[in-house]
Amino acid sequence: WRVLEKDRGDAKSISEVETKMPRRVKRKRMKLDADGNELGWEEYFDYHFPDDQGAASSNLKILEMAAKWEKLQKNVSNSSDDDSSSDESDDE
Predict the structure, then answer these.
(1) Which pairs from 51-59 meet CB under 8 Å and 24+ separation?
(2) CB–CB of 10/16 below 8 Å?
(3) Which residue, 50, 51, 30, 28, is CA-closest to 39?
(4) Residue 6: pLDDT band by 50, 70, 90 thresholds?
(5) How far apart are CA 21 and CA 44, in angstroms?
(6) How far apart are alpha carbons 12 and 87 in whole angstroms?
(7) Nearest to 17, CA basis, from 26, 7, 25, 27
(8) Which of 11, 27, 24, 23 lies closest to 51 in space, CA to CA?
(9) pLDDT digits (tens, 9 = 90+) for 62-71
(10) CA 36 to mean position of chain CA atoms
């Protein structure tokens, strides 16, 4: 993709492709054997795509909306409990 743009694209299209290319990140993780014993650190490469960053933020938005909904449900149930207790006191 990048090679095609370098051959036939203009500077703008090349820069767009470059911004969408994944970043290669070197990471370490503990390597374990079948028994769960530590064998040492293993290095591996992880790839981060710039377009995926938006997906992560949309997941956070969903979690935020769920938390707001849960808080709203608790407020609604608390207010309905308050209303029912005030109705009972009016009956007496």
Answers:
(1) 51/20
(2) no
(3) 30
(4) confident
(5) 19
(6) 69
(7) 7
(8) 23
(9) 888 999 999 9
(10) 29
pTM above 0.70, yes or no: no
Indicate the residue type of 5: E
Nearest Cα neighbor of 17 from 8, 29, 26 is 8
Q: Which tokens in the block code for residue 53?
A: 């960053």
* Coil vs helix vs strand at 23: strand
- Dihedral, CA atoms, 5, 7, 48, 38, nearest 10 degrees? 160
Contact between 38 and 50 under an 8 Å Cβ cutoff? The reply is no
Evaluate whether 2 touches 16 at the Cβ level (below 8 Å). Answer: no
